[in-house]
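Input (structure):
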């Protein structure tokens, strides 16, 4: 009996080990929101305003909500294509077997190509840039637009895509902004997130496994000099997703500022306020932490940042906050 009791205690301690708990679905808690000043804080709509953009926002509609993400439904189409290719390969194999060994040998190359295509489809990463063929537009402030593109859109896309990438086109299913009513500039940015604020291609560089650098050549259009704007990010996994939130957004929810963040795609993420986040953003790429979930010191910090950012604004803004270099 004593042996059994000791074994039960040991099993309980193993279960309660922090590392073990981290392997289970969990929400992002308020303590993950940093207590220091952000390195970047920008009004997203202002930073992404186009030179010819009208000042008023578009009214909320279903098309606007869809426009706040790039890859809506992308995973479903990929899975469907993979399934069709897989069952097509099975059908060819069955026919080849029925016709004899010689036909089987003739069919082998076709089966190999189908299997390769199925594998690529199941990988789930789109390869065609959504900005391909899109007419370029000018931002009113190219530098601020680039900062929002890098830190508010591209960073979360790379961090949360869930597998290695070869180009920024690969992350489009994870590209979005937490708003149901995107401005013309925000809609343009979501479609052309692979271009910087001056309309030039961002450079993606892979370093250590899961670590990337994204660089804008800056106003002079030349890489590797002092005016480059850079983003360094590392992809997360089920163990550390809650420690790698690159950016947070402040948005008004229930009459108070809420902290909105990009959710993690893995199995070990659990929404804390999915319905509220969907109501606010129109999609499931984001979750939020309501104002009342924070401690008093955090509330004061959030309220101060919100008042500073929203002062003089006719409508509640969407504020990007970055706490990483």
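Output (sequence):
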């Amino acid at each position: 009996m004593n042996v059994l009791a000791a074994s039960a205690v040991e099993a309980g301690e193993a279960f309660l080990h922090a590392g073990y708990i981290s392997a289970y679905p969990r929400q992002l808690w308020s303590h993950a929101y940093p207590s220091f000043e952000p390195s970047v804080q920008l009004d997203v709509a202002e930073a992404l305003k186009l030179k010819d953009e009208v000042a008023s926002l578009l009214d909320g509609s279903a098309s606007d909500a869809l426009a706040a993400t790039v890859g809506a439904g992308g995973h479903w189409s990929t899975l469907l294509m993979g399934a069709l290719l897989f069952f097509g390969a099975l059908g060819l194999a069955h026919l080849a077997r029925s016709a004899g060994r010689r036909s089987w040998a003739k069919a082998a190359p076709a089966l190999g190509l189908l299997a390769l295509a199925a594998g690529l489809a199941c990988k789930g990463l789109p390869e065609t840039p959504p900005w391909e063929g899109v007419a370029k537009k000018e931002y009113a402030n190219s530098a601020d637009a680039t900062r929002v593109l890098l830190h508010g859109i591209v960073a979360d896309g790379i961090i949360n895509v869930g597998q290695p990438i070869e180009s920024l086109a690969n992350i489009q299913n994870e590209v979005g902004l937490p708003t149901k009513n995107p401005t013309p500039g925000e809609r343009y940015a979501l479609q052309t997130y692979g271009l910087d604020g001056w309309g030039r291609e961002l450079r993606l560089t892979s370093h250590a496994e899961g670590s990337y650098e994204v660089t804008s050549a800056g106003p002079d259009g030349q890489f590797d000099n002092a005016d480059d704007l850079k983003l360094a990010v590392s992809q997360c996994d089920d163990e550390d997703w809650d420690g790698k939130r690159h950016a947070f957004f402040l948005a008004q929810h229930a009459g108070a500022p809420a902290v909105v963040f990009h959710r993690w795609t893995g199995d070990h993420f659990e929404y804390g306020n999915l319905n509220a986040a969907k109501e606010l953003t129109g999609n499931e790429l984001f979750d939020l932490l309501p104002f009342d979930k924070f401690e008093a010191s955090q509330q004061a910090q959030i309220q101060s940042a919100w008042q500073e950012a929203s002062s003089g604004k006719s409508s509640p803004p969407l504020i990007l906050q970055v706490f990483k270099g």
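Notes: The chain has two domains: 36-71+135-322, 77-123. Confidence is low (pLDDT under 50) at residues 1-21, 55-67, 72-86, 114-122.
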